[in-house]
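Fig. S4 source data, part A: sequence.
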Amino acid sequence: MEINNYGLIFYPVNNNSAVIKSMLSGRKWEKKILQIFNENITKEDTVLDVGSYIGTHTIELSKLANKVYSFEPVPLISACVEKTIKAMNITNVIHKNVGCGADNGSDFIHTNYNGNSSLGGIRDHLFNQKFACEIVKLDDIINEPIKLIKIDVEGSEWEVLSGAIGIIEEYKPIIILETFKTKRNLKLLNEFAEGFDYDYEYISGDNYLLTPI
């Protein structure tokens, strides 16, 4: 799979990603989420972009925050993010080619490079590529106040949150969460909000905004 670029943003060629189609047409991806970033993040803040894909949100966050931790487990996609950060001379992003989960360990990431992917056992049959990847628990690698966490991990969001309970309890970050609108996920969303004193509201697509009460 080859890497191409649109300006200073690098991406894998020959895929039908909605993110890349939006970028190539000159449109901002997920404008409502970008608005939430702009309304809540300041130059004193540290934020997490969990499941960064080609880094469109990471780039926008880097303009607003003091520090951005960016996580992308697919090797080729992660390489695109690294190339973009270097090309743009972005110095406040710490990018990691890892997945996030409930515990530290390893897994396989399944993908077709178009923005969809899954860790082992979650929708594997939909994808034609598989790569070994490291899994990290956010609580074990983040030891500073966090203002906002954006999570877009294609079905592994509850494991990511489970591995970030310490961060959530101590710092009460704003959370932007993608979770497919199934009965199970909506039940888990409601239980999480009640258990950790968050309000939540629908944003767009499969995205929800969780705000500490």
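Fig. S4 source data, part B ends here. Residues 36 and 146 are 15 Å apart (CA to CA).
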